[in-house]
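Sequence in, structure out. Go.
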Amino acid sequence: MSTNTQDFLVELGTEELPPKALKTLSNAFTQGIIHGLKNAQLSFDSFESFAAPRRLALLIKGLETAQPDQNLERRGPAVKAAFDAEGKATRAAEGFARSNGVTVDQLETLETDKGAWLVYRAVQQGSETTSLLPAIVTKSLNELPIPKRMRWGASRTEFVRPVHWLVMMMGQEVVDCEILGLKSGNATRGHRFHANKTITLSEPASYADVLEQQGHVYARFNVRHDMIRSQVTEVAANLGGEAVIDEDLLDEVSALNEWPVALSGRFDDEFLQVPAEALISSMKGHQKYFHVVDASGKLLPHFITVSNIQSSAPEHVVSGNERVIRPRLADAKFFFDTDKKTTLQAHRENLKPVVFQAQLGSIFDKTERIAKLAGFIAETEGGQKELAARAGELCKSDLNSEMVLEFPELQGIMGQYYAANDGEAKEVCVALNEQYMPRFAGDALPSNLTGCAVAIADKMDTITGIFGINQPPSGNKDPFALRRATLGVLRIIVEKKLDLDLRDLIEQSIASYKAQGVELPAGDKLVDTVLDFMLERFRAWYQDASIPVEIFLAVKALKPSRPFDFDQRVKAVHAFSKLAEAEALSAANKRVSNIMAKAGDLAIPDSVDSSLMTEDAEKALATALANAQETVNPVLAKRQYAEAMELLAPLKEAVDRFFDEVLVNAEDEQVKLNRYALLKQLRSLFLHVADISVL
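Output:
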């Protein structure tokens, strides 16, 4: 390391930081400081972040000890304006010199093509890094994404949690400053129980090793993360099972422990009578436990907890955790047993006073609409209308159950269990869970048509209703998650290859609202507004698939309202765009489009009169179009758009020749209109698939 660089360490010691926010806080803290250093033109070799329950830290390797010197140059007035006829400095020259703290004779002259100018030149010495660091760190801390800051004691200082110590070291020296009311030093603190003491650091680079060896703290988040995964996996294997490691839970547990030790506990077999999802929710949500399954995926009566201490009597830690989880699981069993005493149909009646949305009625009202629309969807697709309608009626009943009131994330899942307990048809039971699919990007889709029908109906009812009362998403605000709901509808229809028309679904939804006496102030434009919103969601979909936006726009221009059909068109046009003939045919369509636009109100015939054709090129195009129509129309009837576009590609030669040899705007009005009719046929052929003039 050269003499003009040193390592820098900053560590802020706090009360236990919010575990779900630790990674975000650490990243923001790091990026804020890195950004500050770059703005100050301070270079460095590398950096490493540290994040643990009671500390945010950053190590910068090879940081410059001072800013580089800067050559300053300020241009002043032109020499002509700086001196009078006698060569004496004018007020302009003296003012410029004075503003730079020098005399006129200390200024230099700059010769340019446009004349000579007075100029001030100087070297500005760079500031010492240690004088800049306090402000850089303070700014980063002030800009952390903390929704609500807190104060403690009599202090006016605010932070996400009370702060207790501050390490700021440049090389072996302390950066003397005060931040958040803390005087900087070189002393950190160890584990709250294993090493509850002050630990003096001799140099920044040894920070992580010293904390681990003397402080019983693994300061690196990723090290704890990997340790916990490895330990939990090993403990589960010793139990004869496999740990199910949820990544979000793993992150949270990593943020809760400085010295992680995985231990296994057991719960009574009787609790396995309760749906596994309820037990898992209780273990994960309340206790941050990892659950264990056998080779077939069945829940085992074991859990794995991660302790923050290396206990000399781990059995006591396990026993304590078993005592804590027992009443939690007992509550889940009580809820389950209680809920089974009431049918979903009876639970549904209790939804009448529960408001879905003030202007749109109750959740009970919503289930009425969902049932009707789900039945329509199932019937349209050749499914069982009665099953879909029944699933729609019962789809929200479990919201009134004790279990879902305690564990909201189990909605739908518990409905499936309770429906089975009530003796409902299996397809109905499954649909009650699948109504919420897909819950997130990449999630599974409903497995059967009944599930698809209810999932689509639920989402369409919400989208139509909220747009109907003029509350569409705006900016980042989307309280009813209409964008996500729309993507869910599109995914189900496209990936399940359903021939559903969004326009029909929207109209059916509106009719159901009106049948209930619900006023939708959005009025007559509602269908088109919702349709445009939903089709626009395809834009990002295709961008993610690396399909150019022009191809999406070419299809959207025709407003095809069947999502599966829309998708087939996009894929067909995408394949066509890669053909050699695509560019020329696209340009020709654009030219035809412009000609038609200029034609205005001209009465262009629908058919072509061959007796009006005088040029060989127009006759050739007419023949080519007639042949193309004969071969393409049967293909289009089957919606085989990719094949249709491929069959249209050979038209390029006849189209090119027509535009090279034929004057479209002939002097004879009848001939001109006949040529317009020919071009109209050409454009119409492509418009069966997309408007390729926008490519």
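Check: The two ends are 56 Å apart (CA to CA). Residues 221-337 form one domain.
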